[in-house]
Structure formats: structure tokens, C-alpha cells
User: What shape does this take?
Amino acid sequence: MKTLKFVTGNPNKVIEVNAILGGWIPVESVSLDLPEIQGSLEEIATDKCRRAAEIINGPVIVEDSALEFHAMKGLPGPYIKYFLESLGNDGLNKLLYSHTDKSANAVCTFAFSAGPEMEPLVFQGRLEGKIVPARGPPVFGWEPIFEHKGETLAEMAHDKKNKLSHRYQALFKFQEWLARDNNRFLIQ
Assistant: This one.
């Protein structure tokens, strides 16, 4: 089986993806500086995947995470990285200060392409929760402020998080798709 190239510069994402997939698919990280278009989660992931497949010249997967505040009609959404860089977790909380609705969705979108000129496929996972003051180690950006059923993602044990997170849900869909005889894209 070919090694699936996972385009990310975040070593923590690689560890988490490998833990979720459990070695079922060999995953190797590749750091590429890809431009990111503005658009929907699906458009952003698909565009990044197309570009990465051209550069890698083979099977590739990319990931885009989002944090959608219901009170702000889905913002910051796919632009959470830039909001977090500018405002930090405390600033993200302050965005919702005047809103009674603190509910949010954590969204993970993976896009897979079998290679250049192959249309990327999108696999998405969503986890409902709410925004709270930061709790837990700040390993993954905004995870200390996203609470699901009484615990922030940052507070959860890795095994628990890796069986329910937005990233798990998206990767589970990808793995199911591959298992339905689509693994030919990864066989040498």
C-alpha cells in the first residue's frame, strides 16, 4: 500500500490522525506552503487538495478545521486560524460576550485526491458544543475553549477525544469510503 501524504505542518495533527486511523492507512506528513482561498469549508479544502496533489504527484489528503459560533451565523468558521492568531482564546470568548448563545460547532473537513487531475473528495465531521473560558492544555489552538458534554477538547483524554471529535468523524467517513473497495487508490 502506498503511503498517504497528509499535508500539514502541525506534528500534533499527524499524531492524532495516526492514532485515529490506528495504522490502517500509512500516513506521512508533508509540509507545503499552500495558498488558502476564501470560501466555504468544502471549497477551501478542495482547492488545497487539488494544489497538493499536483505538487505531490500522487495520493494526498489535506485537512481544514473550523469553529462556527451559532450567535455569529457560523463565523469565524474556516477563518478561525486568523481569528485565533489575532485574538487568542480570551479574545474569541470576548466575541461572544454580549451574546447569550454560546453554542458552537467544531468542524473538520478532509479532502482526498488520488493524484493530479483527480477530483478531490470531501469528508466532513461536526461536533456540537459551546464556547467556555479556556480549560486544559493549549495543544490545539482553540480546543481549550470548546466544550462538549462538560469537558473541553483540551481536557479530554486522547483516547476519548479520538473516538468522538470532529476530526475522528471526518476520518471515519474517509476510512469507510476506502473500505468500500476504494483502496485501489493507495495500492502500489
Summary: The chain has a mean pLDDT of 92. The first helix runs from residue 11 to 21. The chain is about 35% helix and 25% strand.
